[in-house]
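Researcher: Quick one. two chains, 749 residues in total.
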Amino acid sequence: MKKLVSLLLAIMMLASIGFAFAEEKVAPVVAATELAYKGALELMHYSTSEESQGNGGSDGFRSVIAAWEAAHPDIQLTQNVLANAEYKTQIATLAGANDLPDVFLLQGMNTIAWAEAGLVLDMSDIIKASPYYADYNTAFFAPFTTPDGKIYGLPALTGGTCTVVIYDKAMWKEAGYDAFPTTWAEVEKAAEYFEAQGIDTIAFGNGGQWQMNSDFISTLGNRYTGPEWFSSLIAKTGAKFNDPEFVAALTETQRLFKDTKIFNEDFNAVTNEDAREYYIAGEAAAFIGGNWDESYIAAVLKADNEEKFNNIGFAVLPQPADATKAPTSQNIGLGYAMAINPKVAEDPDKLAAAIDLCYELTGPAFSGYVAKYYALGGLTKVADVDLSNFDKITQDFYNWSYVDTETCEIYDSYINSAVWSVLNTDMQAMCNGEKTPQEVADATQAAYEANY
Amino acid sequence: MLDAIKPKKSVIYLYLLLPVAMFVFTVFVPLVAALVYSFFEWKNGPVKTFNGLANYQQLFADATFWQAFGNNIYLVVACLVGQIGIAFLLVLLVNARTTKLKGVHRTFGFFPSTISAVCIGMIWTMVYHNKYGILNWLLEVVGLEHLQQVWLNNTENIMLIVSIPLIWQFIGYYMVIIFSAIAGIDSEVFESANIDGANAWQTAMHITLPLIKNTMLVCITLCVAGNMKAFDNIYTMTKGGPGTSSMVMAMYGYKISFEQFNLGYGSTISVGIFVLSLLVIGGSQWLVKKITAKVEV
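Model:
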């Protein structure tokens, strides 16, 4: 009997080792460029090892860094890796002290101010000289381009949506809907049914104040204003936050959150992390958030509730009755780019090494890796992504994100945080009914004029 | 004899060198630097442009800053009553002859002040949670469902709501200070009062309180100073929201400096906090001295 147990254990152990090998990812291969530089090169980013456990972009980023280090043993890559929130604070503090690292991730909204201050290297020619230039998705360069057409970074990590409606197909089927409604009027009707069931129709969390911007108004605003209005705001060519179209978008946002029963009543007190738990627990029939929420929800449900996992559906924000633009739009893009400190250019060999690192971290080694293992896209296009190895939900989300929907800009990839801080704070009060949409729009416009 | 063991002046200076240098670089230099930067426009990069008193003009007209100052004053008053007042009453209760397990009360009373402010904020966020929180659950159990609400979205009472965790956290801290002060009073004083027929209230107000007046003054100063720089609990619970309804000065300074990256104006806010804190602390000390002097007369 003991022998039989030992044999079974041995078989199980071997099988587990076999599975482990089967799931082992093949490390990305970077171009073996000859680099003359020998010495230290600083890199600051926010793909921490913890982050890379569940985030394909972070995993790909770290894997390419490891491959690049192995390919260039004479270069000591000094990495300063912080979580995203701490990264944003520290990189801005370093910029304030004119002490940025050699290579770092530039946030889109800082591009114009930092370029004006001479903190980032103009990479326009470097980008055109890239061996991967032909495969770049050039639309992703927009947040890193100044009004005079100069580009200051190679967009990095993966392009994910910031506004996706994740819904439970079975729950909505029971409510009489074969797919998620395309108008808010229909959602309001469905809310009557879900309220009677004691379920929230849509879970949303705005406790951090940024969610209403990134995960909601950035897309809803586009439905009223169209993309030209935001382009004009970026280029400072006349559009204003208190233009009637944007005020109408704010008015609709206030109505949806304050006057209807669609959202969880604590939307202003909980974060997106809390709200997505309402969806996972079946306390809400849908959830609105970003791609980071989708990956969490899918991973949790796949492990704990396969039936609910298989019922995941994806939809764009419904269209407001008085909106006339882009009904299938969702905001997607790359919010950060690989950027180089202009001081690096004093040493041409070091600059060549920094450029090579940027090329590889945004090139086919990265994009191929994240496409193959995570069905995600980056700056460099990957032809014929094979989705057959992924489950249906991953395939659906890939198609929803990159194929089936119209895209629009992520507001806070542009302009600057001083403006968004005012809008985000005031929208929270507005959704409680303590400020009018016009007041919010006027305050945001004042912050825009004072800071941009 | 004392002269024989007294170290040389050079040795004293050597011992003092490191702590003084640390103090200068961590407190004095940032303070002076903030004062200097407060006269500059310094936004989103290394470029600083001298703009005279423009930041101070902005500060005087900044409704959010003064709202935050008002919220700090609210916190100060709430915590003076809640922290020191309740701590004093609890000390009297624990010190009463009939109270058992005095050591346990002291230890558990002090416990919350050893927990980090962020943890306290997270614990109370859970307490206040409208779906899973113990507060709404208790209201349901006692049949007061109509009072259930999203506590952290209650703009009208949000300052009271965020004050409660702060009060709860530091009651034990002041209890320890007051305990030690009362322990220093000669027990014969209380015995005499007892023989004279003074009840507990009279003993507390006319004997204990006047004899620990100086300690209470220290408690008040600590309480005022602590609440003028309140930040972490509230940041964890509401981030200053809804809107700006629970904004306090330190959080506003942080938001301006590190969310909006307006370091010049952020420095001005820091100077504002420093000056207002001095005024409030000085004012509260003057007021307490004035009141206690009157009582003594």
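Chain A touches chain B at residues 89, 92-93, 95-98, 110, 113-114, 116-117, 119, 207-209, 265-266, 268-270, 278, 283, 416-418, 421, 425-426, 428-429, 432, 434-435, 451 (CB under 8 Å).
Researcher: Thanks, that's what I needed.
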